[in-house]
Amino acid sequence: MRWIFLILLFSFNNLFAEEVNLFTTRHYESDIKIYKKFTEKTGIKVNVVAGKSKPLEKRILEEGKDCIGDIFFLADVGRLISAEKKNIFQKISSSIFESEVPRSFRSEYWIGIAKRARIIFYSPSKISKNELKDLNYENLSEPRWKGQIAIRQANNVYNQSLIASLIEKNGLDYMKKWLKDFVNNFSRKPQGNDRAQILSVASGESKLAIANTYYYALMLSGKKGKEQQLAAQKVKPFFPNQNNRGVHMNISGVGVLKYSPNKENAIKLIEYLLTPEVQSHIVNNTFEYPIIENAESNKLVMLMGKFKQDLDTPVSSYGKWQKEAYKLMKKSGWN
Ligand SMILES: [Fe+2]
């Protein structure tokens, strides 16, 4: 009798001998399906620890070598770089990362899993598309936009990444002057999230809003209620810098933790997240763009149209200017 029990115990243990621990700021019930499929294919169990970025990062730092985490999944490269600077990640490489993910969306410490663009939104009843013709981010400091632009606060990481990319392209001196003029063009004291900026355009309070693409599609989907859906329907996306470098891009992505106990399994899971089927699933929930070429985005995202992306400015360069960007933004009166 006893040996039967031992055999059973052994096989049960063996069943989940392989595992990977995913620390993530994504929380979608439907992601569980992805992990189950991964387990069926590989025998590797996925344990998910979901939370907000700051508390998860704090836990990882405090637990150090004892931390069970293998992968850390974060939105916005600003957060990935800030984690990288705290020495949280280890270097990773895989031929799949190299073949599937454009160079500008990965570094040796982290890799993009989905991408988003930070663009301009306008109300066609207030502005003609002609007025926006050839518009670049750089033009948003011009006096013709005085009192018309809605954007959220300076402490927001998406804004810091955008301004960092503009510093990378135009230099610090140019951006010092630019930021003062840009802040002068705000329609109101920055407040609320990205969706609140789109609402401000819909209500006629502002002529332009800056927000990430997925918030617009999220509002259109009705998942944020009828009111926001109707508001978004009054607003259109505009992709700037189409005659030069392209639109400012950002990523959600993952890094492998420095003390990852299951590094090989972690790489396997990341490679799995880069397969077309899983990519489509991931971006269908978040309304982001897939990071690989041949995966589909959500219908509402596709309806926003094709555009030229800035692939010349690696997202890793935002990290170089993140602190300086925030300092300059505050100094220019951006609250
Ligand atoms: Fe967001």
Structural description of this entry:
- The structure is a single chain.
- This protein is α/β, with parallel strands linked by helices.
- The chain folds into 2 domains: 159 residues, D-Maltodextrin-Binding Protein, domain 2, CATH 3.40.190; 151 residues, 3-Layer(aba) Sandwich (D-Maltodextrin-Binding Protein, domain 2).
- 44% of the residues lie in helices and 15% in strands.
- Strands 1, 2, 3, 4, 5, 6, 7, 8 and 9 form a 9-stranded mixed beta sheet that branches.
- Helix 6 packs across helix 14, helix 8 packs across helix 10 and helix 9 crosses helix 10.
- It starts with a helix and ends with a helix.
- The mean pLDDT is 94.
Kindly list the characteristics that best describe this protein:
9 strands, 335 residues, D-Maltodextrin-Binding Protein, domain 2, nine-stranded mixed β-sheet, 14 helices, alpha/beta, binds fe (ii) ion, 2 domains
Fold topology:
Blueprint: H1 2-15, E1 19-24, H2 31-42, E2 45-50, H3 53-63, E3 71-75, H4 77-85, H5 95-100, E4 110-122, E5 149-150, H6 157-170, H7 172-184, H8 194-202, E6 208-212, H9 213-221, H10 226-233, E7 236-238, E8 249-256, H11 263-273, H12 276-286, E9 289-290, H13 299-302, H14 317-331
Parallel strand pairs: 1-2, 1-3, 5-6
Antiparallel strand pairs: 3-8, 4-6, 4-7, 4-8, 4-9
Helix pairs in contact: 6-7, 6-14, 8-10, 9-10
This protein binds fe (ii) ion.
Order of helices and strands: HEHEHEHHEEHHHEHHEEHHEHH
Unique bound compounds: fe (ii) ion
What is the CA-atom radius of gyration, in angstroms?
22 Å
Mean pLDDT: 94
Percentage of residues in strands = 5-15%
User: What would CATH call the homologous superfamily of the largest domain?
Assistant: Periplasmic binding protein-like II
- Assigned CATH class of the largest domain: Alpha Beta
Biggest sheet, in brief? Answer: 9 strands, mixed
* End-to-end Cα distance: 71 Å
The appropriate CATH architecture of the largest domain is 3-Layer(aba) Sandwich
At the fold tier of CATH, the topology name of the largest domain is D-Maltodextrin-Binding Protein, domain 2
Q: How much helix, percentage-wise, in residues?
A: 40-55%
Question: What structural class results from the helix and strand content?
Answer: alpha/beta
Poorly predicted parts: none
What is the 3D form?
A: globular
Number of domains: 2
